[in-house]
Amino acid sequence: MSAMTFNQTELSKYNGQDGQPAYVAVDGVVYDVTGVAAWAGGKHHGNLAGQELTTVIDTKSPHGRKVLNNLTVVGQYVAD
């Protein structure tokens, strides 16, 4: 399977609600956070799945980008 490309409209569909997977984008890469307990229901510390979160993870996250290493990459993010 080739990597998928997401813009913000497409990414927003993967919000972890109503049975949808939960995806987030950081620095142009889309990660699957569906199975991560901290992202249950598509929410994590006020952040919502289906969003581009580079600024949030770089400026507000206590763990930073190191947690991304444990996630599955599902595609690339391209701004609208």
TrEMBL record:
Pfam families: Cyt-b5
Cross-referenced InterPro entries: Cyt_B5-like_heme/steroid-bd, Cyt_B5-like_heme/steroid_sf
Superkingdom of this protein's organism: Bacteria
SMART domains, alphabetized: Cyt-b5
Gene3D superfamilies (UniProt xref): Cytochrome b5-like heme/steroid binding domain
Record domain Cytochrome b5 heme-binding: where: 6-78
The name this protein goes by in its record: Cytochrome b5 heme-binding domain-containing protein
Organism encoding this protein: Lactiplantibacillus pentosus MP-10
